[in-house]
């Protein structure tokens, strides 16, 4: 039990922090068109689009329909929003709407995808609205969305080695 609690720390980074957004943008800028995935099925262009979908979902612009039960929701909410426990590599399923591989979404212009993601990321802190609920985590505040999407971007940038 003690070992488990040693790995649980309050996640402090979120996308409302200018320095954290700058860190993420710097990492996005280090991606190359030929970057190879260290796990999973997405190519780098699909990952850029997939992470943009997550930000758009937070701002109420991209729906996600999958639901979780109350017990799983409570567990996932704690793990995702309150700890720095990393998601499993290649094991976590995404929402059907965000699955670029299964949906055959394969953007061809790396630079356009990268610039679009950065533009969405820069728009995020001052969005005119945010979704009130995540299908996986339940009721969400602006701060919750900022933590969730930092973790999502961090996970996928690590997937591509940056």
Q: Summed up, what is this model?
A:
With 162 residues, the chain is an all-alpha fold. It has helices at 2-6, 18-30, 44-58, 70-82, 110-123, 142-159; strands at 133-134, 138-139.
End-to-end separation in angstroms reads 32 Å
The proportion of residues in beta strands is: under 5%
- Global Rg: 15 Å
Q: How many separate helices?
A: 6
* Sheet with the most strands: spatial strand order: 1-2
Mean pLDDT: 92
SSE pattern = HHHHHEEH
Number of strands: 2
Q: Given the helix and strand composition, which structural class is it?
A: mainly alpha
Give a short account of the largest sheet: 2 strands, antiparallel
Number of domains: 1
Low-confidence regions: 1-5
Shape: globular
Helical content, roughly? 40-55%
Account of the 3D structure:
The protein has 162 residues and is mostly helical. The protein has one domain (37-159). Helices cover 48% and strands 2% of the residues. A two-stranded antiparallel ribbon has the order 1-2. The longest helix is centred in the last third of the chain and has 18 residues, at 142-159. It is globular, with a radius of gyration of 15 Å. The model is unreliable at 1-5 (pLDDT under 50).
